[in-house]
Amino acid sequence: MPSAPAEPWYIVRQSSIHNQGVFAARDVPKGTRIIDYKGHKVTKAESIRRGTAQIEGSAVSGEGAVYIFVLNKKHDIDGNVPWNDARLINHTCEPNCEAQIIRGTIWLIATKDIPEGTELGFNYGFDLETWEDHPCLCRTKSCCGYIVGKEYWPKLKRLVKKRDQVIAAGNAQAEAAVKKTGRKQKKPAGK
Ligand SMILES: [Zn+2]
Fold it and tell me: pTM of the prediction?
């Protein structure tokens, strides 16, 4: 594993995906520990409370803004603090890093060689509970449309199809209702 350089591997700047993002400050070799995910160590009970608040907040703002990371059986990390640059790493359906816990530290590790200037991204791994609240903006070829862990993609596909069918059926019904109303209005007002 490459040793840590004096300068950080990353820089924070404006992203085309969403607000700010984190970018490779130089060529990053596969396997590099790029940045550690900092934050408050909280108990599971506190984590659930904070996570729920973040999910509710992100549902309102339309952002996938949930910063809770599972650390171990007893504790999670709430990374929603300004000194945690890793919280600015955007979700993507085509990641170039992944989170790994190494001796109590959550590291974002390069899963491939990352050329200088490339935006860093990992899969946030959300489950399907609130998928509709978290549309994905990554614009990659393999984008599944929502911020959802890859293991859920097949099930997500079925849910999206079902949802679209319901919308289509709803639209057809609305159209039919409009046509009906239109005919009614065309009827001469009989006296
Ligand atoms: Zn995507």
Answer: 0.79
